[in-house]
Amino acid sequence: MRDLASTLEHVRTADGRRLRVECSGDPRGRPVFLLHGMPGSRVGPRPRPMYLYQRGVLLISYDRPGYGGSDRQPGRRVVDVVQDVTAVADALGMDRFAVVGRSGGAPHALACAARLPHRVTRAAALVTLAPRDAEGLDWFAGMAASNIEEFSTALADPEQFEARLIPRTRSIRSDPARLLEELRKELTEDDLKIVSDNGVRSMLLRNYCEALRSSPYGWIDDAFALTEPWGFDPACIQVPVLLWHGARDAFSPVSHTSWLAERIPRATSVIEPSAAHFGALRVLPDVLRWSLVDASADEALPFLPEGSAGPPQTASGSRSR
Questions:
Q1: Do the beta carbons of residue 164 and residue 153 sit within 8 Å?
Q2: I need a surface site. Which of 124, 192, 207, 298 has the fewest CB within 10 A?
Q3: Are 165 and 246 in contact (CB under 8 A)?
Q4: Which H helix or E strand runs over 22?
Q5: Could you tell me which residues come within 8 angstroms of residue 278 by beta carbon, excluding any fewer than 6 positions away?
């Protein structure tokens, strides 16, 4: 059934929802799910297809419910990603696979690791948030003002949050560059270099446009899911986990990864001192390489010596300078 990877576009879930799916790389390669950020879609940042093909990687992405071409799932929790990943994997005839999540997709990758230990070989969470109810963690400490405002409103007044985000997504849909401009004042110098690269910028704009193409509710429901209980305990994860974070990240503070690293038994934590949020794009190729290492291999094997990461390799093949 792996041959379906070249043609499969939609998958039906057990409850009848439709998920929009996209595969790239080697159709017969080793499968890795890449779970996108917030807002995001299946066409979000990733290594170019030839890079994946040459390394025997089949990269599977799909739009979370409410984004792009996927039906909405009102009231979804982070843990509900498990049924969707299972549906896509079953449709492709995949028994075992790795999972990588970036930003808003990272907690969803951890959910798969927690609930599918018999299928997930390895999981990586890049610039992740911790659960909102994380004991002993000041969840908002070090967070950018825009994210504090967004998440605080989602928690305190969901109706107001929805009312604010609907017109905002309408504006971004008509001009996706607007979102990057909104973020610019809170980006570090390193992040500005990454998002100013023409290839990366083009990919991000395409990603935002597709994410919000049909609905604002992927973004709305993501915010609610990330600030409500996740539905699983990260401490129960038994598969190897890689946690990567830029120390200067203000959108997902590094303290969130530190909290998770203390609780996930088989976690390897990599903190890059000079990087911030979009630094995750730079290390993604190396993270994918780590995700394909046999789970029985030495887990201490470094996936990336500090400071050795090259510039991001994008689907268009451009490289940041």
A1: yes
A2: 298
A3: no
A4: strand 18-25
A5: 187, 190, 191, 194, 195
**What is the identity of the amino acid at 47?**
P
One-letter identity of residue 289: R
Phi, psi for residue 82 in degrees, rounded to 5? -60, -45
Helices (H), the chain: 49-54, 81-91, 106-115, 145-156, 158-174, 177-184, 189-196, 198-211, 217-227, 254-261, 279-291
What is the per-residue pLDDT across 215-265, written as a single tens digit (0 to 9) for each? 999 999 999 999 999 999 999 999 999 999 999 999 999 999 999 999 999
pLDDT tops 70 at residue 321: no
Give the dihedral sign, CA 201/312/284/195: negative
Using a 10 angstrom Cβ sphere, with 0-12 exposed, 13-18 middle and 19 or more buried, the burial of residue 272 is buried
For 162, the 3-state DSSP assignment is: helix
User: Within a 13 Å sphere around the CA of 32, how many CA atoms are in the beta-carbon half?
Assistant: 30
Write out the two tokens for 209.
């446009």
Distance of alpha carbon 315 from the chain centroid: 16
Question: How many residues in total does the chain contain?
Answer: 321
Residue 250, CA distances (Å) to 3, 10, 20, 103, 137 in order:
42, 35, 31, 12, 15
Alpha-carbon distances of 157 from 93, 152, 169, rounded to whole Å: 42, 8, 18
Give the H/E segment covering residue 23: strand 18-25
Eight-state DSSP code of residue 207: H
What whole-number distance in Å separates Cα of residue 111 and Cα of residue 202? Answer: 30
Spatial distance between the Cα atoms of 312 and 242, rounded to a whole number of angstroms: 19
**pLDDT, tens digit, 9 for 90 and up, residues 99-149:** 999 999 999 999 999 999 999 999 999 999 999 999 999 999 999 999 999
Q: Is 227 helix (H, G, I), strand (E, B) or coil?
A: helix
Residue 204: in which H helix or E strand, if any?
helix 198-211
Peptide bond connecting 39 to the previous residue in cis, omega within 30 degrees of 0: yes
